[in-house]
Amino acid sequence: MRGSIMADSEWTRAQAARSIERLLPRLRAELADARAADPAGWECFEARLAREWPRLFALLLQLYGGHYDFFYHLEQILLAAGRAWEQRSPALRALDERRAADPFWYQSQRMLGAVLYVDRFAGTLAGLRERLPYLEQLGITYLHLMPLFLSPEGNNDGGYAVSSYRTVNPAIGTMDELAALADTLRERGISLVLDFVFNHTSNEHEWALKARAGDPEYQEFYHIFPDRTIPDQYDRTLREIFPSVRRGSFTWDEGMGRWIWTTFNSFQWDLNYANPAVFRAMAEEMFFLANIGVEVLRLDAVAFIWKRLGTNSENQPEAHSIIQAFNALARIACPALLFKSEAIVHPDEVVRYISLDEAQLSYNPLLMALCWEALATREVRLLARALATRWRIAEGCAWVNYLRSHDDIGWTFDDDDARAVGIDPWGHRRFLNAFYTGDHPASFARGVPFQANPTTGDARVSGTLASLAGLEQALQEHNPILIDLAVRRILLLHSVMLSAGGIPLLYIGDELATLNDYGFTHDPARAGDSRWIHRVAFDWTRPERWSDMASPAGYIYNELLRLIALRKEQEAFGGSALEVFDTGNPHLLGYVRHNNGQRLTCVANFSERPQTLTANRLRLHGLGYRFCDLNTGARLSADEALALAPYQFVWLETV
Ligand code: GLC
Question: Would 394 disulfide with which of 133, 355, 610, 629, CB 3.0-4.6 Å?
């Protein structure tokens, strides 16, 4: 068996070599002018092509080798990569070189991400340009703009139903403005991040319109079925992602008189990646986005891109091959481009998307969900276990750590991890849903359910960070003690996000403790999607309140500015090494961060009662006797136990 795999791969390598020998002259001829204009650049391109071609070829062969026109598609894909290089601006080619010289730039502790909706934050792209000083003051170096492409009027899943990847939603601006903004951001040291919504298009995308009009070439772009026979077979093993939209994963399209695969909303048509033309078409969209200056593509809904009968059609091996093939193409044509995977699936599966050859960056849904879990239970056993056993990812890659996003919170922990620390996973998820939707007598949270599934009893939670952390309830009750506790919770969560390794990602509005906005229920296009409760329009009125330390919003904002600045100075917060230690106290999370010669011991109290870490453990894990807490400047000695106030966190350096 081994021998045959070897023989196969040798055969594949030989095929790869033969094919590029044949294709290269055509590529050179096609790009004659561009090569003459930048011979050194072309040399780099060819070097990258030589490096990446064997793996790209092997991946495409594995995915599409069975198609009679495989070599035609291969040539077209290569030509598309060549043309993408040709169209890449001198500034972006220079960026490619800078990144090649410093490939792990994103692991720096100076990185800070932010995510926002252009329309909700600043109205338009022009408005956003004017608001950049706000983001710069926060210290943002990575800016994810939520989907801003053309999409259907009314409900369009917050822009995740894309009708054209080359047209900006006219209500917020133009493609030229977007490209100019990308330039400005880059000049100011901010990387532009956009979504690559590649699992589906809207039903108004040109490809969908052609399919609907009966064009067989474009019907092959989607998963379309004449009757329920095959959809029924698939539905037996598929997970329902948006059960409150419709049951199952298929939608009847009246125009076509056919069933169509729609994992999410009924107007989001899943693309058929078994068709090489789809891969090629999306690769061209990827190149287009890279060449307007996008530095990181957030790969939306990665888990769903390959379908296989008899499975849940999530995380199939081919999904990885497709992303790796996109990755290889990016390395060849626009190597500064990075991928961030959005795999909100079981933790075992999340890490499989992360590697330098696939997605260099990944959301960390486990850290997010378990921070909320620990806040509800006041205990860190599940969080500590997950950090101890599931933190490590492929060398050179980075987590993107977040507390809230535009999406719901799902309780994504592993059932066996829960059992190992004495928690019944099913009951615990029910408890967490009840707790965060205010359906529990001891809850401080004001969240609402999202996509409750009447069959499985499963549900997820919507709500802003501040409302989930208790601030909304505390303010309504005018209770200063509860307000204080909520503020402490909010800062505690941010302290973990800012000190764990990877890129912290602020959900803009959270820095000002934005509360739930219940107004979405009056908008018919949004009323059916509770995630709008936490997609709140930014409040620019009375900016003077941001400096009001007596208000929760002002206090949190200024404390976050301070913590962010502090983070950026600590080498230890760069890289991703993190070692969890047993604090011997169920409420205290403890971990050590070290990098470039600096070592910091972080301890966070997840309960509203004072807690202590014994002197012995402090000596052991703090490595020393005298410490400085970087947060308060307090000097501490390990002659005594470390005392933490309710929800206090410390970042200790040995002195
Ligand atoms: C991702 C997005 C989510 C969207 C879905 C379908 O999960 O984060 O908002 O609904 O993909 O595109």
Answer: 355
Is residue 228 within 8 Å of residue 259, measured between CB atoms? Answer: yes
The Å distance, Cα 160 to ligand 1 centre, comes to 6
User: Would you kindly state where each structural domain of the chain is located, as residue ranges?
Assistant: 575-654
Answer yes or no: CATH 3.40.50.300 is held by domain 575-654: no
Rounded to whole angstroms, the Cα distance separating 39 from 50 reads 16
C-beta of 301 in contact with ligand 1 (< 6 A): yes
| Distance, CA of 209 to CA of 186 (rounded, Å) | 36
What is the DSSP annotation of 176-217? Answer: HHHHHHHHHHHHTT-EEEEEE--SEEETTSHHHHHHHTT-HH
Dist. CA 223–CA 466, nearest whole Å: 41
For residue 201 the two structure tokens come to 């298009």
The burial class, CB within 10 Å (0-12 / 13-18 / 19+), for 46 is middle
| This prediction's pTM | 0.97
Distance (Å) from CA 342 to ligand 1 centroid:
9
Of the candidates 153, 157, 155, 177, which has an alpha carbon nearest to the alpha carbon of residue 167? Answer: 177
* Torsions phi, psi for 633 (to 5 deg): 80, 0
Contacts 24+ apart (CB under 8 A), 253-256: 253/203, 253/212, 255/212, 256/211, 256/212, 256/214, 256/224
Taking CA atoms only, the protein residue closest to ligand 1 atom 7 is 301
Distance from C-alpha of 398 to C-alpha of 361, rounded to nearest angstrom: 5
Question: Which of 300, 350, 529 for mutating ligand 1's site (highest number of atoms within 8 Å of CB)?
Answer: 300
Per-residue tokens: 581? 């230690």
Give residue 211's identity as a one-letter amino acid code: A
pLDDT tens digits along 548-584: 999 999 999 999 999 999 999 999 999 999 999 999 9
